[in-house]
Design a protein that fits this description.
Layout (H helix, E strand, L loop, with lengths): L1 H13 L11 H9 L8 H4 L3 E11 L3 H8 L7 E2 L5 E5 L2 E5 L20 E10 H14 E4 L2 E3 L6
Antiparallel strand pairs: 1-5, 1-6, 1-7, 2-3, 3-4, 4-5
Helix pairs in contact: 4-5
């Protein structure tokens, strides 16, 4: 299987190799790439840069956070991280909150009673287009946001 993949990639970039012909060197590969005879990915296309955004104390309209999760195609079931809060994971996105706005559970229940629709601090990170969408949805469905930190998860 590995031999087949290597042979296929070689042929894709350099054509059929004749018996006894030497394998390409790094110099050959660089020259081929620079001549633009082949369509290779640019390094920036291979790197997925994580974008971050933070919200200070945030309250949602009734059912608002559930709508955010639904529109981002994230399962509405949080994972509890002890006194560090709760998180939800979706395709290319992570949302962290200090309180679970769906159940009302606070990460440190001895410090605060349960309060549905209250997220406390929110941190969002992931692919830039998905984070942008999440930020827009949070702003749309929130009833109160004390502050925000674009480009970083300052609060949580």
């Amino acid at each position: 299987m590995k031999k087949h993949i290597l042979q296929e990639n070689y042929e894709r970039f350099f054509g059929k190799r004749k018996f006894g012909e030497p394998l390409p060197t790094l110099k050959d590969v660089v020259e081929k790439y620079q001549s633009k005879d082949i369509n290779m990915f640019k390094l920036k296309d291979l790197i997925v840069e994580a974008t971050k955004h933070g919200f200070d104390l945030t309250d949602f309209k009734s059912g608002g956070f559930k709508k955010v999760l639904k529109e981002l195609r994230i399962r509405p079931k949080s994972k509890h991280m002890g006194n560090k809060g709760f998180y939800w994971k979706g395709s290319g996105i992570l949302i962290v909150t200090g309180n679970d706005p769906l159940t009302g559970q606070f990460s440190q229940p001895d410090r605060r009673k349960s309060e549905k629709n209250y997220a406390s601090f929110i941190g969002v990170e992931g692919k830039s287009d998905t984070v942008e969408k999440a930020v827009d949805l949070i702003k749309k469905y929130a009833s109160y946001i004390k502050g925000e930190s674009p480009g970083r998860r300052e609060y949580i």
